[in-house]
Specification:
nine-stranded antiparallel sheet; alpha+beta; binds protoporphyrin IX containing FE; globular; 9 helices
Amino acid sequence: MQPLIYSPDIEVIAPDEARLTEEIVEQMAASARDAYERHRHAHRDAHAKSNGILKGELVVHADLPPELAQGIFAAPRTYPVVARLSSAPGDIHTDRIPAPRGFAFKVIGVEGERLTPGIGGANQDFLMVNFPALAFGTIPKYKRMLALLEANAHAPDTFQRLVAGTAHGAKEVLKALGGTAGATLDGLARDNHHPLGETYHTQAALRFGDHVAKLALRPLSDDVRALTGRPVPDTGYAAMRDAVTAHFAHVGAEYELTAQLCVDLARMPVEDASVAWPEDLAPHRPIATLRFAPQDPNSPARLVHGDDVLSFNPWNGVAAHRPLGGIMRIRRAAYERSSAFRHAQNARPRIEPTQFADIPD
Ligand code: HEM
């Protein structure tokens, strides 16, 4: 099947979208203010806990076929990259509670028309989670989930893991809340796996030059493939960070960045991110290699820089990779608000790196 040709009318904006967006962003900002009062330090409204900040490089494959040689992948090139590994909750919890894990990376020094002139210099951010779909993949469903998550913030152990769709039993909870409990989520019910062995997904769609795609990042080198499906060693409250630090003390890691092109808007929807696009319709195909050498991903200077100075934002990038669909549109306001509050309260500048040397060792 031929890849869909991008056109702006594949996005459909719901009449109540502006109001719901405002309410959701306000709700998230209120919890961020609460968390700030408890910690007297501002964290991200989501993915507050970092598990490692990595410096690496993204090598775009040579000889990509025309449908994959799009946007920043149009020509073979090697870019510096900074990545932040995280856990999804908007507050700092013990790693003993399974939670979705995040992998955000910033490609430094890309060319192309900017999506949001004024932020991001010349960088392209991609944000991913270790799940192919977002269970609450429309704006109304996301709002319902958020309300319940906040109402149960003090019982994170059972409730948050169920809502996150990461634990056994998630299917029933998702159904009750109006989420989509398809076979994919059921099959992916998971435990507390090593974050470096996971496959990460954009979950929602983005423009891929002339086409539309979801991206994923999967373990490529033996060191990290060996970690897939392995429980993270239980070293305590910061088990994820400990595991990432221990790994990079000795070896590096390689991941394969892949693109899954949309070929059928009905079965691979853009407006509902809870639908994992079927791989039998269009498989994920490799476009680049992301490579990290051994390093200290959690040195004090690195950690403070990653948590307090850097921002990753799906709207920080080029027009050729415009985020698509309701869940992506709502993120435009949410990330800006979260980052502005965090930087203001911590009195830290928001600096976009322009070179490796901007990220401390
Ligand atoms: C498509 C599904 C989504 C994915 C894959 C995703 C992934 C991520 C990741 C990996 C981070 C951490 C970035 C970092 O390390 O700095 C993050 C942060 C964040 N996410 Fe999402 N997210 C998704 C949907 C949403 C939605 C729907 C909202 C809210 C409406 C949201 C709000 C936020 C906020 C506020 C932050 C913190 C931003 C900051 O302070 O810098 N996310 N997300």
